[in-house]
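#onboarding

Welcome to the new folks! Below is a worked example of what a typical request in this channel looks like: someone posts a single protein sequence, and someone else replies with the predicted structure as tokens. Don't worry about understanding the tokens yet, we'll cover that in week two.

Example request:
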Amino acid sequence: MELTGLMQLPGQGILVFGLLMTRFGALALTAPILSAPQVPIRVRVGLGALMALILVPLELARPGLDLPGGPGGLATALAGEAFIGLVLGVLGMFILYGVQFAGYLIGLQMGFGMDQVYDPMSNQQLPSLALFLGSLALLVLLLTDGHLAILEALSGTLDQIPLGHNPFTPALLDRVLSALDALFTIAFALLFPILGVLLVAEIGLAVMNRMMPALNVFSAGFALKIAIGMGILLTGLPSITHFLESVIARWLPRLSGFFGS
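Example response:
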């Protein structure tokens, strides 16, 4: 359907277009890549409008299409559409949040607690290891077409929650809590192997300091922990990348059924 054809539909077509654009526009505010400050607002709005324009004919042909009526119903429907897009975008970011959290804790244990660098994607100061691992996770997400899977998942929500329907189901809170649990699972699965080696090194330094206190082992321990941590990260980079691929492959299908019954 062309834009001129859409505008010829005085009520239903424009309402469907507005609801769809609200759902996809809200996703662009929180989803990976699209939510970056470098992405102009007109690009986000244009993408939302394009996706809405493509799906308008399908939604108009959907059997049993029930659109809200009245100002109150329309406001509630727009809020529900925005909620769906925002939540799905945040869920897409959970992998990056979990990896960045793991990077922060690893850097803290290595002695990079005060290390802060500028992250152009979030427009914030982040620890260097959190930024590095988060950028790696974002690269893997792009290489595995994760950004397209998020858009596909949002399109799939139209079958689970039709336009104008209430997205707040009884099982929604349990699914949100399950998603938060998955965030920390990702973080600690990446964190524990590296922290385990650093803990062994810490114990070894403590034993050496106890046996030879005159050497003042802890003064050289900071550099040693940094060297050990960087060595583990460099040698384990292929394994970390494979881990991120497997996490993304398991996580993205969950988005498709997040709002399902």
